[in-house]
Structures are given as structure tokens and as C-alpha cells.
TrEMBL record, chain A:
It is a multi-pass membrane protein. Pfam families: BPD_transp_1. It comes from Gracilibacillus salinarum. Its main location: membrane. The chain crosses the membrane at residues 26-52, 86-108, 120-141, 168-192, 223-243, 274-299. This is Sugar ABC transporter permease. SUPFAM superfamilies: MetI-like. Residues 82-296 form the ABC transmembrane type-1 domain. The keyword Repeat does not apply. PANTHER family: ABC TRANSPORTER PERMEASE PROTEIN, INNER MEMBRANE ABC TRANSPORTER PERMEASE PROTEIN YCJO. InterPro entries: ABC_transporter_permease, MetI-like, MetI-like_sf. Keywords: Cell membrane, Membrane, Transmembrane, Transmembrane helix, Transport.
TrEMBL record, chain B:
This is Carbohydrate ABC transporter permease. The lineage of its organism: Bacteria, Bacillati, Bacillota, Bacilli, Bacillales. Residues 69-259 form the ABC transmembrane type-1 domain. SUPFAM superfamilies: MetI-like (SSF161098). PROSITE patterns: ABC_TM1. It comes from the Bacteria. Belongs to the binding-protein-dependent transport system permease family. The chain crosses the membrane at residues 9-29, 73-95, 104-128, 140-159, 180-205, 240-259. InterPro entries: MetI-like, MetI-like_sf. PANTHER family: ABC TRANSPORTER PERMEASE PROTEIN MG189-RELATED, ABC TRANSPORTER PERMEASE PROTEIN MG189-RELATED-RELATED. It is a multi-pass membrane protein. It is found in: Cell membrane. Keywords: Cell membrane, Membrane, Transmembrane, Transmembrane helix, Transport.
Amino acid sequence: MEQVKAQSQKRRKFWNEERKEAFSGYLYISPFFILFAVFGLFPILFSFYLGFHKWNGLGEMEYVGLQNFKWILTDPIFWKSLSNTLIMWVLGTLPQILVGIVLAYALNSAIIKMKGLFRVSIFMPYVTSTVAVAIVFGVMFNSQEFGLMNVILGWFGMDPMSWSTSEWGVKVAISAMVFWRWVGYNTIIYLAGLQGIPKELYEASVIDGASVRQKIQFITIPMLRPIIILTVFTSTIGALQLFTEPLIYIGRSYREEGITVVLYLYREAFANLAFGPASATAIILFIIIIVLSSINVFITNRIGR
Amino acid sequence: MKLSFPKMFIYLILAAAAILSIFPFYWMFVMASNHNSAINSLPPAFIPGAELVTNFKNVISTIEFFGAMWNSLLVSTITTIGVLFLCSLAGYAFAKLRFKGRNFLFIAILVTMMIPPQLGLIPQYIIITKLDWLNDMKAIIFPGLIDAFGIFWMRQYISSNVPDELVDAAKIDGCSHFRVYWNIAIPVVIPAFATLAIIRFMYIWNDFLWPLVVLREESSYTIQVALRGLIDNYVRDNGMIMSGTFWATVPLIIIFLLLNKLFISSLTEGAVKS
């Protein structure tokens, strides 16, 4: 009896409130860490391991050192995929930001009626699926002369363009898909930022005799800077991971004009079963994302200073 | 009423943007309701036709449209519910419970947001193969439950909206930690749930690369993967293709139009705070 009492007292001491709380805390956050260990961390570490091995998914892995990296870095298609990705990043992302700010500014001006209608229409592209967008634009940017874009070119007296096979046609078409789908999203986010700017700032600047240009330069842009940084950041990471649009648009041919880094990775892994080079590509992509994100932050930090 | 020049200019810009945003939806409908020959003629059809039903029948005979829609609905719903539960639970722990390493672990979760998902793609595929989950919805659901942003979001919301006094009072009354979370925190975070649910549901619904890798049998396809099957034919029947994409898009548009206020405000909330 005494013994049992002592034991339960001891147990009670062990399970004091602090320990109970800590235990609950660890328990509640453990699902993330368990799932992340299995589906996140382990795969990442294994990718780094695979990057230095030769493997087709079956059979033995063979250590090959830096050979996979050499193989990729001397593959002209890899460099092509990288330059394509960067070109489409510039074509798709920069206009997104500029147009997004202009549209947000227009939506935010007090004199406009039917704001709700404009806002919903401009935001709607974001709500469709990427695959659907890529298919629709694929048909619009058809290379035949009855393709919608070629019909429009015809109105302006221009010759039809081979959108799906020419160097720039493919890139313009894919960038257009990205631009169309994301510009409304950015607009809404800038709009939220604009609405967060205190009206007193503008009122004070009017009293000081500021012009519209000065108001934009000295109030709007600096106040909007954190949000611009955020959107540049997210759209850059998104652009570097471009995959669905080019895969749907150029199909299984993996045409050189439109191949992106992730498409190259996918082709190496699941069409060529070269898991080593594919993992090496993933590692290089990771490094590029880190470097570009840092440069981005650095440059955007200087805008409007 | 006379419009001043800057006012007209602003209306012009907004109208152009609205038309360009809506036009592809209209175009999709025009083609979904026309015969292929009308689409492939010069000039192409610009007004809706009468082939809506025929085109959709062709879709159903080409891909398992309804099965794929059901699969998408199933994985997106289950994943979203799972994410809401796990993220609010973890967010509650980070916001209201004291334990060693709390801040470090929270920062560790935020850091995982920087990693591109493609980095682990191949080993993830191998794990799914080893688990024998290929063509199984579990392959989409379980990895989809990891959501660092969701935990961040829930922690912020619980920190600022669930008062400490209320939590302490409940503890003194002898509530277990789980009871406090369930009875006090959950009712307060419902608005934050709406935001997270929309973002997560859309993400899983629209995901393409991962389902493409792990779903190899047609019966397991989500709608995104199934749609791809429409364009793989040698003979391109654009009326049929557009009919498939159109009907796969309609449910999303209806949900959006019903919830558009919530949708837009949820996005701006997320943007401004993070």
C-alpha cells in the first residue's frame, strides 16, 4: 500500500504541469515533423546522395563522383533549358509586376465605379487550373493561320507566326499564359498594399504641393516596397519552377525552344530513367533559386530608397 | 455626364484588363460549343454554336471525366481537412504552449518553405513506390498534409485572437490541453480556417507535376492529369478538347463567384501580414 502510494506520488511529480504542457506541445507539432522527415527531409538528403551516383531506379547504385554534374553542365540542352527559363521569367514576371501596380492603382482611385465587377473579372484567371490555361492558350496560339493569335496578326496585316515551333513564338506563348494567370493575383495583393497606406500621407503631400508623379515616387512606391519584394520573390521562385505550361504546350516532344529546367529534370528522370543526372539537376536548380532570390532581395531593397 | 480625361483613361485601362481576363473563358465556351470544322476555318467561329452536348459526349468517351473529377474532389477535400486540423493543432502549440526549443522548431518549419519541391521529387517517387502507393490517392494526400505556411498562418492568428487569460482560466478549471484547443481555440480560428482552406484546396486541386508522377493508371487520375489525355491524340478535335477544359473549369468558377469576397480578402490578408 505504502509502496503504491509512493509510486503514484512519484508519477505525479514526474507528470507535473510543466512536463504535461511540454509533452502536449511536442505531440501537437509532431505530425509536421514526422511527415516532413518522410516526405521532405529524407528525399532531399537522398537527392544529394543520388546526385553523385548512377542509378536507373532498379539495380545497383554506382558512385560516380561529380560525373553527373559534368554531364549536365556540358549538355547544351541543359543550358538551353536554363536560358529558356530565365527568358520566360523576364517575359512573364516583369510585366506582371508593372501591369499589376498600374491596375491596382487604377482600382484604388476613388473616382471609379463598379470596382467590384472590375476586381472580380481581373482576378478570375487565377481561379482556373494551370492545365486548362495551357490547353486554351495552346489552341489560341495555334500555328495554323486560323489560330486566334494569327487571325489577330492578320487584322494588322502581319503574316501568321509558327507559335509552337519558332524560338520566340514558343516563349511568348508560354510567358503569355503565365502573365495572364498571375497578373490579377498580383493586382489584388498590390491593391491590399495600397489600401494600407494612410490617407494622411497623401493629404499632407497635397498641402505641400506635390505632383501626381511625386506622390507616386515618394509615397506609393516606398510604402509598397515590402509587398513588391514579396511578389518578386514568389513569382521568381514560381517562374524557375515552370513546368505545367511548357509540358502541355510543347508536349512529349520536349522541344528545345520551350524546355525549362524542371521539364529537363522530369525528362531525365521519368523519360530517360537517369535518376543521377536528374538529381544533379535538382541540386543545381536549388542553388540557382537561392542565388537568384538573394540577388532579388538585394536589388528590390534598393528600389525607392 | 462628362468624363474628365484621367477618369476616362482609368476606365479604359480597367475595361481592357477585364475583357482580356474574361476573354479566354468566353473563347473556351465558344469552342466547346462548336464543331471542329467551324473552329478550324478562316475566320474561326466567334459566337457559341450548338455542339455543346456532342463535344462533351466525345470527352466522356475519350477520358474518364467524372471519375477524375471525383478523384480531384476527394483528394482536395481530405487533404484540406487534414491540413486544417494539423496546422491549427501545431499553430496552437506554438502560440500557447511552453516547451523547450519552441522558437527554434518554429523557425525550422519556416525555413522549409524556401526549399523547392522538385528537389526531393525522385526520392519521393521511390518512397511512394516502396510503400506500394502508386495509383493510390494516399500518394497525394499524405505528402500534401505538410504545410509550413499553414502552421505559420495559424500561429499568427491564434496568438493575436485567442486571449491567454481564457486559456489559463480553462486550465485552472481542469481542462486538458486538447480540450482547451478544441473548445476554446477552434471556434475562434474559424475565419482563419476559411483562408487556409481556400489556399490549400486550390493548391491540391491544381497540382500537376506530382500527380503526373505517381498516378499512372487512368482510374486514379486527377482531373489535371486526365485533361492532358485530351490533347495526346493525333487528330486534334479542338471542340472536344475545349469542352473538357470548360467543364473542368466551371465548378471552380461557380465556387469562386459564390465566395469571391472571401477569396479576395483571404489572399490580401495573407499577403499583408506575411
